[in-house]
Every structure is written in structure tokens, then in C-alpha cells.
Design goal:
Elements lengths: L6 H13 L1 H19 L7 H12 L4 H12 L8 E9 L3 E9 L2 H14 L3 E3 L8 E10 L4 H10 L2 E7 L2 E6 L4 H10 L4 E10 L3 E3 L2 H15 L4 E6 L1 E3 L1 H8 L1
């Protein structure tokens, strides 16, 4: 789940990931298989595979599980034939969503994604209706107790593009290819990195001030992310921390 304008939404994401770690590993394995199938099983020469493997290791996936997924993708072991598809849609309040899937049954997955939107007041959109608003970026979340000048110096020297305050954390943005280097540099400088991912970020954010709309937005995302075929859900919502706190109650 990626609605990046408030740390509260990232905390919601982290709780969901911790709760569904088994599903996370299954999805990472599928991503590794596809990357290995498309570019070969050598992470040194396959940049897409290298990125997913680093993501899997950061998520504490074991080396054995990673190796098995690479072998399935490279044809050394039997695996499914997955198709990559991106669906687009709108949640209540005009919130835009992109849904990346890897599926071996396009009809089943399309039906599941459509149901998630319609069940909570959203709707599917035509291809291109939403995607133009997003671009691929690296996003690193750093504990906000660090001094801005110190974080900025390390981040910019390691290839980051920008740093901004986001609630009680620092939000560092990079080109996708520079993210892991910037993360490593920040950690080497003893800053606490709370999260790091290559994600789709919208040029604009949509404030969600109605608590019922906020609930529906998060329920759509939870239902989508609970689906084994769905790999990532990107959105442009901005839910204020006080609304998140009220929902938690």
C-alpha cells in the first residue's frame, strides 16, 4: 500500500505487512520468478531481479526461498506462468489508485479487483485515466529526530533528489536506481531508516477529510492487498493523522 503523504498511512501499511508476512513472502517470490524469467537468474546482470532480491532480503525472506524462486523463474524448477497487468481505478473522494498484479488467470483477477472497488464505493477506470498522474520514485522514510541538515547532506551526497518533513519523519525521494545506495548511506551514517521502497508516486495528493470516505479508501486497499495476485497498490490519498487516530479508536 502506498499513500505517501502522511506517516500515519505508512504506519497502517506497516501493520498490514507485519500481519500478512506469509502473503508478503508469496508475493515477493512471484516477483522474483517473473524477474528471473524475463531477464535471467543472475542478479548481477539482471537489474530488475537484483531490485526484487534486495527488497526480499529487506523483508527478511530467507536465501533458500529466494533461490527457489529464482530457479522457478529461470526454468531450473517448475513454476506458473504469470502475466503482469496494471489496473486503474478511483476510490471514494476522487482518490486515484493503480493496482499492479501478477496473475495466471486474468479473468479471475479482473473480477476480484473490480469487486474490491465496487464493494466500498469505488470504480474501475479506463487504462491511462489514472496512470498519467504517477511516476516511479524511490522513497526512504527516516526517523524525524535527526537534524534536517545532517540528513540532507548524506541523502544528497548519495544521490537523493529531495528531502521533506512528513509529520514526525523525514521523507527522502530518489530516482529508483539510486534508492538502495541512498538507504545504505543513511544507515551507515547511523540514521534510523524506517522504510524504503521503489514505488509509484503521484504528482498531486487528494485530501480525504470525511472519515467514512477514509475508511472506504483503506478497506479497498486492504481487500486488494489481501489478494494473492495483487503485488502493489499505489494511491494519492492524504488522510490527516487526526482522522487516522479517530478510526483507530
Amino acid at each position: 500500500m502506498s499513500g505517501h503523504s502522511k506517516w500515519a498511512t505508512i504506519k497502517h501499511k506497516k501493520a498490514a505487512v507485519d500481519k500478512k508476512r506469509g502473503k508478503l513472502f508469496a508475493k515477493l517470490a512471484r516477483q522474483i520468478e517473473v524477474a528471473a524469467r524475463e531477464g535471467g537468474g543472475d542478479a548481477e546482470t539482471n537489474a530488475a531481479l537484483r531490485t526484487v532480491v534486495l527488497k526480499a532480503k529487506a523483508g527478511q525472506m530467507t536465501n533458500d526461498a529466494i533461490d527457489r524462486a529464482i530457479k522457478r523463474g529461470s526454468g531450473e524448477a517448475t513454476g506458473a506462468n504469470y502475466e503482469s497487468i496494471t489496473y486503474e481505478g478511483y476510490a471514494p473522494g476522487g482518490v486515484a489508485m493503480l493496482v499492479d498484479v501478477l496473475t495466471d488467470n486474468r479473468n479471475r483477477t479482473a473480477s476480484d479487483v473490480r469487486l474490491a472497488f465496487s464493494k466500498f464505493g469505488g470504480s474501475m477506470a479506463e487504462p491511462g485515466a489514472v496512470g498519467w498522474q504517477f511516476s516511479r520514485r524511490g522513497v526512504i522514510i527516516v526517523d524525524g529526530s535527526a537534524a534536517e541538515d545532517d540528513v540532507m547532506t548524506v541523502a544528497l551526497e548519495s544521490g537523493a533528489d529531495d528531502i521533506e518533513r512528513d509529520g514526525d519523519v523525514w521523507r527522502v525521494t530518489t530516482e529508483p536506481s539510486a534508492m538502495w545506495n541512498a538507504k545504505a548511506a543513511l544507515e551507515a551514517a547511523k540514521f534510523t531508516v524506517l522504510d524504503a521502497e521503489s514505488t509509484m508516486v503521484s504528482d498531486t495528493s487528494i485530501p480525504v477529510s470525511d472519515i467514512e470516505d477514509a475508511r472506504k479508501v483503506l478497506r479497498i486497499m486492504d481487500m486488494l492487498e489481501d489478494n494473492d495476485d495483487v503485488q502493489d497498490v499505489y494511491s494519492n490519498f492524504d488522510i490527516a493523522e487526526e482522522i487516522m487516530a479517530e478510526m483507530d479508536q
